[in-house]
Amino acid sequence: MSRSLSLFAGLALLLAAAVPARASDSAASEASHAAGGAVIAGAVTYLADDHWPKYRGWIGFSAGTLAGIVGEAVDSANGNGFSGLDVAATALGAAIGAFVTDQYILMPVVEPDSEQGAYLGVAGRYRF
After folding, report:
1. Which long-range contacts link 52-60 to residues 24+ away (Cβ below 8 Å)?
2. How far apart are CA 47 and CA 101, in angstroms?
3. Exposure check for the chain: N or C terminus, fewer CB within 10 A?
4. What pTM did the predictor assign?
5. Helix 84-100 / helix 27-48 crossing angle, nearest 10 deg
6. Which of 14, 125, 128, 114 is nearest to 64 (CA)?
7. For residue range 96-124, what is the model confidence (pLDDT) as tens digits?
């Protein structure tokens, strides 16, 4: 199974499990929104690395935040109301998920620099 398909399947299962849940503005509810935003942003950042490595973090953050907005729009259309706090918690989680994936999980992007030439990062690997 390709990594795109496996990540999509994992996200689909996560979202399917979350659909029947009812939430409030409690700390646990906001933590779950943040965790969902982090997972979505991290997965999209990981997938965007293949096609747009320079903007992968922004793409992941945007996707995670958009998922929160769409989720709240669906809640609002179903009569449950739109929660700005839920969107903010999802956006915070998306920022964390995209940043961690971009900076610590994926390899650095090598770019030419007009003033100093190209720069290169160092990668290490340790098997447990």
Report:
1. 53/109, 54/109, 54/111, 56/101, 56/102, 56/106, 57/98, 57/99, 57/101, 57/102, 57/103, 58/98, 60/94, 60/97, 60/98, 60/101, 60/102
2. 11
3. C
4. 0.68
5. 40
6. 14
7. 999 999 988 887 766 666 666 665 556 66
